[in-house]
Amino acid sequence: MGTNSEKGMGVIVKTVTKLTLGFILLYGIYITLSGHISPGGGFAGGVIIALSFVHVMLAFGKDAALKRLRPPGLRLVISGAALVFLAMAIIVPQGRVFDSEVIVPLCEAAIVGPGLFVIFVALVLLSKADKDSE
Amino acid sequence: MLEIHLILFFMIAAAIIAVEVKDLLSSIIAVGAVGIGLSMAFLVLKAPDLAIMQLVVEILSLIILIRATIRKDLPFSASGRWAFNTGATVVFFAVFLVCAYMALKGLRAFGDPLMRVSQAYLAEGPAKTRALNIVSAITSNFRVIDTLGEGVALFTAIIGILAVARKVGHKKKK
């Protein structure tokens, strides 16, 4: 826990974060896309993607993380993924198994990853607002 | 089954510590120990999908708990209406035990599931869906509506949190 939550942590944590961020993001995408071969899937991959952005936010502060994921873009990604998923479930006829080993995990990861990051940001900001108002 | 019993005792001990300890940070870390134990239990029961999911969700919830709620003083009310509270707890516990006894009599033994629909999934799943991981073959092909409902639940939670935490509309009334 850093002393100042706006500016993030020390230089060691920041350097290690710069090195490991890409690998964590890549591992999340790998877990998402290879869910039909090895253990994993859309939900776990999405949570790992969310964890990579939480990592950035813990190390560099709120502004650096929100610069990478702008709230309008977040809303667009989450809603778009949900709509694509819903359209697939409606359009594909009943009783037919369709080729969904890529699209379904991608939609699920796109809902879960940014969504959990948004929940984390909102909870941290709410607790900070409570602390300021006291 | 020795490992699963050891893990269960570890989880129960960690849960008791999480409830009873006075320090809030120690309590959160004990909750994390319960989650790690659950993840190991899934791994012992040969469910690596669930083990991965439990592990990552546990990490995220631990970070959220530490970061967002650790500085708060949680109000603990122990006064007033204790007779009614205790009585209601005992009554509900008795109802739960009776219903659980009646429901558990009808269940099949652990490790001996009823394979009516699952047999077709296991037999035809890999050929129909071309997925080697049978869990993903079921959750993202045969039961994709179920996965859609899961996504809808999470989506609703996100919309609710954004509606509570939004900036526009938080104006003070005169």
Q: Could you name the ranges of chain B where pLDDT drops below 50 across 5 or more consecutive residues?
A: none
Mean pLDDT across the residues of chain A is 79
Greatest chain-chain contact = A-B, 48 and 45 residues
- DSSP strand count of chain B: 0
Q: State the shape of chain A.
A: globular
Q: Helix content range of the residues of chain B, please? A: over 70%
The total of beta strands of chain A comes to: 0
> What structural class do helix, strand and pairing data of chain A support?
mainly alpha
Helical/strand content category of chain B = mainly alpha
* Main sheet overview of chain B: none
Number of domains of chain A: 1
First-residue to last-residue Cα separation of chain B: 65 Å
Distance between the termini of chain A: 21 Å
What's the Cα radius of gyration of chain A? Answer: 17 Å
**Helical stretch tally of chain A:** 5
- H/E topology pattern of chain A: HHHHH
Radius of gyration of chain B: 22 Å
Q: How large is the share of residues in beta strands of chain B?
A: under 5%
Residue share in helices of chain A? over 70%
The largest sheet of chain A is: none
Number of helices, counting only DSSP H or I runs of 4 residues or more of chain B: 7
